[in-house]
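INFO  loader      accepted 1 record
INFO  loader      residues=375
INFO  predictor   begin
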Amino acid sequence: MKELFSGVALGKNFNAKNRLVRSSTWEGLCDCDGYVTPALCKMYEELAQGGVGTIVTGITYVERGDQPSRNMMGLDDDCFIPNCKKLCDVVHKHDCRLVVQLGAGGSMSHYKTDLRRVYAPSSHPDSTMYEGAEEITRAEIEALIQNYAAACVRAKKAGFDAIQIHAAHGFLISQFFEPRFNWRNDEYGGSLENRARFLFEIYDAARAAVGEEYPIWIKINCEDFMGSEGLLFEEARWICTQLATRGIDLIVISGGNCNSTKLELGPMRSNIKTVDDEGYFLSQAEIIAEDVDVPVMSVGGYRSVQKMQETLAKTKIEMIAMCRPLICEPDLPNRMREGTQDRASCFSCLDLRCKKIYGGECLYRRVQRLKRGKA
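INFO  predictor   done
INFO  writer      dumping tokens
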């Protein structure tokens, strides 16, 4: 039986000491040029020491002109390789794996949008995204695909244990899936096969660049929860089966669109108080795990050892990811493994500053620190 804190070996050259993963978040702790800082190294070392088996980095840009947020990590130039290697070394010395998430913002961007050309599948304005975005040309699509492939090569050289392509939550790749944002009438618009073409070409180029033995993961929505304007569950199932056929190494099932749904339907939800509230994309992840012959990771509201262990025992899910609980308590995995704590203190409050760390603390952690100071 799969155990949360047992070692795991998945596919091509990926081994971790347990099945628990720190899911990607935007830390905002790189410098303004995209270089890793001592503050980011300190955060990742604290996570690695805390017992999580794998860390997925914050979204990392592959093209300098496409940075959705400030202080993101960069991999668009070879100059970043030594810098990223230092981060890998910090994590690896604690027997923790490090996966780099590569992504493009498109009209999800809100950083220096007045100083650059912002891509979108189509140029029609939408109030939920940056309204000045312009339709990406075929030449720009090809250039961006090659930039993804080049960033993958740099990630491999730097020592990252795998790559995760971010195709969820309303960023550029997922916008191509969505009829709300993709009005194209060329080979990248219209049918689902066409709307998924951009992702498939990115994956194919990445695979050709890094070879068959280097792990490539994908993070994708099970559904956008936008009705016919967004990606539907059956469409997501088809995309995942196609990726499995192409040789993807692991599929991370998330859901929701950051800017075009209500909070209760987005990727980050509030008031997770009971076991029944946890794993809010699990039912869809279970089905996709049955569809494909590659490992599937589930993310979304996990807080208790009970729910995570039940998920591993009763489904084909291979790994469990969480983020906000590890912002609150970086050493939570150690306490769970030791049996001294069976549930995260994080209750998914509405203080969403935990999503925008800036090197700070979540509300719960800040209050506990102040209490200790008074004591």
